[in-house]
Amino acid sequence: MEILLVIIPIVVLVLVVVASVTLVGRRRALDTDSVDLELPVEVSDDQLSTAVEPRELQGEQTGPEDLLEPEVQVTETAGPVLGTSVEIVGPPLTEEEAAANIAAAEAAEAEWEAEHGGVEELVRPTFRDRLAKARGAVSGYVGSILSRSTIDAETWDDLEEALLRADVGAGPTAELLDAVRSTVRERGITTPEALVEAVKDEMKARLAGPVGLAVADTPPTIWLFVGVNGVGKTTTIGKVGRRLADQGSSVVMAAGDTFRAAAAEQLGTWADRCGAHLVRGEEGGDPSAIIFDAVASASARGADVVLADTAGRLHTKSNLMDELSKVRRVADKGDGTVTEVLLVLDATTGQNGLQQARQFTEATEVTGVVLTKLDGSAKGGIVFAIRSELGIPVKLVGLGEGAADLVDFDADEFVDALFDRD
Predict the structure, then answer these.
(1) Residue 159: its pLDDT value, please?
(2) DSSP letters along 234-274, please?
(3) Assuming Cys at both sites, which of 7, 56, 299, 370 could form a disulfide with 335, CB separation 3.0 to 4.6 Å?
(4) H or E segment at 371?
């Protein structure tokens, strides 16, 4: 018994020492490999019951277009004008979904009719009224300039900053200020007030030019509308059609954007509103064929103008620019004459819109720009950048949502509104 009392403490002591050595070794191992180890995260039973399982494909499905529901993914879209962007890809709309889209469009149309009594009063808005937000980009700097008694280096810095913040662009801003400096020297300008007027005069001179839309000697005249989705292309066509109808012209609209769901229905709503004839095809059909048929229909009807909508993106890997070049070639082969290729740009995209303009110009020989949403958060200077860098005139601008809010571009009124401080 005495022997056991002696042995037991010794055994316990040995076990404690061994356990301590083992624990120290494990801690050192953890410290050494800590970069490569990830501790497991405890998950509750409730969390396990609601965990999201990977979506399973059914049958022979092999790609995102075969999924039961649309899925967001990053895709390489139509050509360098768009680059890499996030799109919704998925199966075509079901009949029920398409019907729901059409019903929503009809409901919106009914609401519009109820609000306007079936007749919209066309009252042309002014640039001054609608460019209040755009003026904010320059008014502070103009106020600072006018508060000085002389023209100094800081005055020129404020002018440069104002133009850059208005989205004129670095290159056009430098060219504009170089020209104004020459004017200041030649005229002996010494006051900030005269300097600001010299800037305005130079901008007006560079933006000046005819903005009328050309018509063919022999009808039908064809105007193609190009631009990426979301810029207001289809709505612009509807507003132009309304203007032509009010002027007594007969119009045929071609629903050439066959890749956007319910695009033809949207254009059809505008066609009904302005009494135009609509030519459309199947969803996903060849846009060139639809536009060719529209020109033939216009010729047979003796219509004056064909307004052709075009794709803003494709569901395939084919290049959007190649498709638009084909549309232009096909449109020229019919009875009509393409006199305008109008690029529709969202003014709020700023310098990104300038990049789009370069790409579309190379593909379709753009003759003019329609700048939409100029009354929103747009800074306005993109008008000057397009004219200066590409030599393309801005012919129409959107100053609101109504049909009358698409107006001819007026360089003098635009510049005065941009610099107005009242």
Answers:
(1) 92
(2) HHHHHHHHHHHHHTT--EEEEE--TTSTTHHHHHHHHHHHH
(3) 299
(4) strand 368-372
